[in-house]
Amino acid sequence: MGYVCIHGHFYQPPRENPWLEAVELQDSAYPYHDWNERVTAESYAPNGASRILNPDGRVAQIVNNYGRISFNFGPTLHSWLAAYAPEVDRAIVEGDKESCERYPGHGSAIAQAYSHMILPLANSRDKLTQIVWGIRDFQHRFGRAPEGMWLPETAVDLESLDLMAQQGIRFTILSPRQASRVRRISTRQWNDVSGGRIDPTMPYRLRLPSRRNISLFFYDGPIAHGVAFEGLLDNGERFAQRLVDAFSDKRTWPELVNVATDGETYGHHHRRGEMALTYALDYIQSKELAEITNYGQYLAMHPPTHDVEIFENSSWSCVHGIERWRSDCGCNSGRAGWNQAWRAPLRAALDSLRDTLAARFEQAAGEFLKDPWAARNDYIDVVLDRGEKSVCRFLRRHATHELNQPEVSSVLKLLELERHAMLMYTSCGWFFDDLSGLETVQVIQYAGRAIQLSHEFWNNGVEEDFLNALSQAKSNLPEHGDGRRIYEKWVKPAIVTLDKVAAHYGISSLFKPHVNPERIYCFTITAEDYRNLDAGRTRLALARIMVLSEITHESQCFILCALHLGDHNLSCGVRACEDRDAYEAMAQRIADVFSRGDIPETFRAIDREFGNVNYSTKSLFRDDQRMVLRHILDTTLAEAEAAYRQIHEHHAVLIQFLRDLGVPLPKPIATAAEFALNGLLRRELAAEPMDAERIHSLLEQVRAASVNLDSTTLEFTLRTAIERLLEQFAANPDDPTLLDRIDARIKLARTLPFEVILWRPQNLWFEMRRTVYDGFAGRAAGGDQEAAVWVERFRRLGESLSAQVD
Q1: Torsion-angle region of residue 105: left (phi > 0), alpha (psi -120 to 50) or beta?
Q2: Tell me: the pLDDT tens digits for 739-763?
Q3: Which residues contact 627 (CB under 8 A, 6 or more apart)?
Q4: CA-CA distance, 767 to 346, in Å (whole number)?
Q5: Which strands, in side-by-side order, build the sheet including 523-535?
Q6: Is residue 463 located within the same domain as residue 610?
Q7: Residue 316 forms part of a structural domain
Q8: Number of CB atoms found within 10 A of residue 587's CB
Q9: What letter would DSSP give residue 154?
């Protein structure tokens, strides 16, 4: 019997603001906060709880795909999941543990070079650090050493493979196009397999320059292409059959049919693709068509019998080798008339910056660290745990002497400089069509952060030299000009300093409860004094605060004054602290003027104390900026909604009359109806208790007026309400009234003119059936009438959720 292994490369471009170490709001991902959150909901989470349906289309079983497939998660993505989607992180880790039992001693997770850098284009030092960091990150998350490692874009060269083998990596996975020639071990006759002609059903041994070996798997190219681009995931049985059809009676060895694609293929790129994957694996196994395995287990059972040589500087996503990440090779996303000539000067500018900073890092860090480059390799331990104990352990290993606090901060800044000097090579920066693309701006921002940190130590033209080189990279869009203009447009304004954090704190504090200390992304703000004064709609905040960076341990004391006039006009003054008495006197002077209601004089007083006030709503970080704007706009939007609702209600009879005549509604009336009805529906779907009769009445008005529903917002609103109720029920299963309320909402969802995603409610129901149901069923069998009612309602809820109840 043959073997089947499916590998998913799960990865997202880093989206974190380099100064805040967090992903800010991304409107294009609506209704989710950002694209990480959206892709998690569509792929990473569903693969941890995939469905197998019975013949009636009901959910019969929930399966963790991570326990059955081979996979890797990009470390930067996995870090985000651990922080913002811990349930998904647990499913990933538990899946690996399951696979260690299913494939004895061989977990399905493999590591990845840390920040998705194209390793053949990196220098030797960066290659080693990327590999070491990828391994350490893996060990931190999975609690074991990795057997394999994924190369970003499968971009490969012998030096990278040698370094991987040196670090204990046993295998990696490549595209069939990357194989050059093969021969049976201990023979001399090589056979040309270029052009993707290698047999992918066995592992191969690659002899490395150091005389080490590493095993290589080459995935089945045609099947992988079918999965990614030919709709093979539209039908799980067809997917299974395609895998099984790849076996051949002509082969005399235990064949391995293996496929590798982006993991997001399963659910994000192809909706419900994770279910097709689950079904295919279950179909193959239940019908004994093949054994499901992972690379580690197969390699242990069937070591290589053939040697292979590869094409160095090749990859899976560029037919020209690795040119997509350094030249205008023709590989792009398909924008007609555009070129990618910007790729070469972008890389040249970053290479020059890297080399300049590396030499200076080595010299400056040598004052504090025994071996700066060994310290950089170990710095991943601090990245994974920013706590004080972790930093102390790191410094005990690497510091030349006991460091004082300013020296500790200097060491952390130097190492952060090097971290960002590697992040700026994230492959996505070159993958797409234009220099002004989000992914490319992101890598330039990483460069900007490295340059900012360098100014702490040297200020002799690093930025200007970089911008001169970057100006040689030209955008396809005239309004963006070149790399220098893009840097000045999108990088310079994004740079965060401690005084900007202080201003953000001051302005945002006017719109939310005061917390002390308060954490703003990777900064901790401790208020030594905070005062909030009101005069009608006008508000004033005065504070003396300490701002601390959790990343570099840099801190500074500031005094601030923030003023809100009640509309969109906000201003904040910030300056470095003076002694406490001077602050008290300043605060009293401004408070006295403000308390008299003299706003013009208040402005003049703030100007006298802080000089030219530079901070406003535009200075806020994006999430709190949106929160403040919502607060400011609440009254305006409420007035607009009331006006639209009044217009709609006043003309409801006319709308019906026009509808009966088949006359299209005049645009002003149609707009009023659309705004009013969507707003009313959104409010009713979120309300508790829910008024189903009112909702159906509104839906009838929608139908009568031929209104376009805001399905995205309405679906997300109802889904969130159902999930919230089910979470309450899971926490308090003895409250049977919750069951009826949940069931009513789900039945409503089935009647709506759009699909409501009930994935998480189904998960919660199955989990409660596993952990709670038997207790109630046992009591019901013993004659407990309340328990019997609970069981009947719980089963009814399962039926509403399309679960197989029996």
Answers
A1: left
A2: 889 999 999 999 999 999 999 999 9
A3: 508, 511, 512
A4: 51
A5: 518-520, 523-535, 538-549, 555-564, 570-576
A6: no
A7: no
A8: 18
A9: G
Q: With respect to residue 328, please indicate whether it lies within any of the assigned structural domains.
A: no
Evaluate whether 632 touches 507 at the Cβ level (below 8 Å).
no
Is the link from the previous residue into 200 a cis peptide, with omega within 30 of 0? Answer: no
429-439: per-residue pLDDT in tens? 999 999 999 99
Other residues' Cβ atoms within 10 Å of the Cβ of residue 799: 13
In the beta sheet, which residues pair with residue 542?
531, 561
Query: Hey, how many other C-beta atoms are within 10 angstroms of the C-beta on 642?
Result: 12
pLDDT at 198: 98
Token match 């706003």: residue? 599
Q: Which of 556, 548, 555, 551 is nearest to 412 (CA)?
A: 551
Count Cα neighbours of 131 within 13 Å in the Cβ-side half-sphere. Answer: 26
Which CATH number is 128's domain given? Answer: 3.20.110.20
Classified as helix, coil or strand, 543 is strand
Tell me the helices (H) and strands (E) count for the chain, helix number first. Answer: 31, 19
| 3 state SS of 771 | helix
Q: Is the pLDDT of residue 612 over 80?
A: no
627 and 606, same structural domain?
no
Asked if residue 733 and residue 673 are part of one domain, the reply reads no
CA distance 457 to 479: 35
Check whether residue 18 and residue 161 sit in a common domain: yes
16 plus 153 within the same structural domain: yes
- Is 321 a domain residue? no
Answer yes or no: do 416 and 514 share one domain: no
Residues 619-644 have a mean pLDDT of 90
56, 129, 277, 426 from 162: Cα distances, Å: 53, 14, 34, 22
* Beta strands 179-184; 191-192: pairing state: antiparallel
Residue with the two structure tokens 């100064």: 19
pLDDT confidence of residue 254:
96
Q: What 3-state class would DSSP assign to 754? A: coil
Distance CA 274, CA 270 (A): 8
**Residue 613, pLDDT above cutoff 80:** no
Q: Which long-range contacts (CB under 8 A, 24 or more apart) does 36-41 make?
A: 36/12, 36/77, 36/80, 36/84, 37/84, 37/85, 39/12, 39/264, 39/268, 40/81, 40/85, 40/88
* Mean pLDDT for the chain overall: 95
Cβ atoms of 182 and 193 within 8 Å: the answer is yes
Beta bridge partners of 442: none
- Lookup: tokens for 466: 């970089």
Q: Say if residue 167 is in the same domain as residue 98.
A: yes
**Owner of token pair 């995939």:** 50
In a domain, 631, yes or no: yes
Domain of residue 96 covers: 3-310
How high is the pLDDT of residue 294? Answer: 98
Cα distances (angstroms) measured from residue 659 to each of 188, 225, 532, 648, 652: 83, 50, 55, 14, 11
For the stretch 224-274, pLDDT in tens is 999 999 999 999 999 999 999 999 999 999 999 999 999 999 999 999 999
**Vertex 254: Cα angle to 248 and 257 (nearest 5):** 60
594 shares a domain with 624: no
Total count of domains within the chain: 5
0.85 cut: is pTM over it?
Answer: yes
Give me the mean pLDDT over the 278-302 stretch.
Answer: 97
Q: Average the pLDDT over 32-40 and give the result.
A: 97
Q: Which residues 6+ apart lie within 8 Å of 786 measured at CB?
A: 736
The domain boundary, picked from 494, 515, 540, lies at 494
**Which of 259, 290, 310 is the last residue before a domain boundary?**
310
Nearest C-alpha neighbor of 701 from the set 669, 731, 725, 726:
669
429 burial via Cβ count (<10 Å: 0-12, 13-18, 19+)? buried
Q: Is the pLDDT of residue 641 over 90?
A: no
Render 554-592 in DSSP notation, one character per residue: -EEEEEEEEEE-SSS-EEEEEEE---HHHHHHHHHHHHH
